[in-house]
Amino acid sequence: METEATALPDVLIVRTKAFQDSRGFFTETYNQAAFAKAGITEAFVQDNVSLSTQVGTVRGLHFQLPPFAQAKLVRVVRGRILDIAVDLRRASPTFGQHVAVELSETNRQQIFVPAGFAHGFCTLEPNTEVQYKVSASYSPTHDRGLAWDDPALGIPWPVAPERAILSDKDTKHPRLAALAAELF
Ligand SMILES: Cc1cn([C@H]2C[C@H](O)[C@@H](COP(=O)(O)OP(=O)(O)O[C@H]3O[C@@H](C)C(=O)[C@@H](O)[C@H]3O)O2)c(=O)[nH]c1=O
């Protein structure tokens, strides 16, 4: 496997080696020892999958508060997304900044998003299936959101706000400036 730094040094793009043959390919999407060697030492405790049927589906921006803050290792099994991570660590020099990375069934790259970041994505193809590992279990009482379309974030979403397909919950999150000091 190899990792590539992004504009936010703690967010990594991960590529694992694929073995091609006449049947197709084989790759290890996660290997604890290899990832630890590359600096990803989180113990992942839950695997998630979501299917978004329509192009322009936006999920996010989501995070969980401590002690249930989650690091995430995200990949796309089918389709294509623009994946977004926003730094919410108040003491960080890159607080409020984001990384945008395209993940697809074709490029098979993954993104590692540490705890202390909000995460979300927009689907670029129908029937897109996203799988991700998280380092803390789901806790609805610690689950929080950040407005995906907050202009202060400057995220280059590939869908117009009026066309985005969102959950009811994701239309109601506060903007960054209104997030309480309850962050990280
Ligand atoms: C996230 C999650 C949801 N659920 C349930 C709650 C709810 O009834 C249903 C759908 O939940 P949501 O609307 O929050 O699903 P979704 O909008 O897909 O939420 C996910 O978005 C991406 C961007 C992330 O980064 C994830 O961490 C997660 O927040 O699934 C669980 O049982 N376990 C979980 O870990």
Structural notes for this entry:
The protein is mostly beta strands and 184 residues long. It has one helix and 13 strands. Strand 1 and strand 2 form a beta hairpin. Strands 1-2-10-7-12-5 form a six-stranded antiparallel sheet, with no helix packed on it. Catalyzes the epimerization of the C3' and C5'positions of dTDP-6-deoxy-D-xylo-4-hexulose, forming dTDP-6-deoxy-L-lyxo-4-hexulose. This is dTDP-4-dehydrorhamnose 3,5-epimerase. Keywords: Isomerase. It is an enzyme of class 5 (isomerase). It holds the Pfam family dTDP_sugar_isom.
What small molecules does this complex bind?
Answer: dtdp-4-keto-L-rhamnose
Show unreliable segments: none
Q: Main β-sheet, in a few words?
A: 6 strands, antiparallel
Provide the helix percentage: under 10%
- Beta-strand percentage? 35-45%
Say what oligomer this is. single chain
**For the residues shown, what is the average pLDDT?**
96
Query: What structural class is derived from the secondary structure elements?
Result: mainly beta
Task: State the gist of this model.
With 184 residues, this protein is mainly β. 3% of the residues lie in helices and 40% in strands.
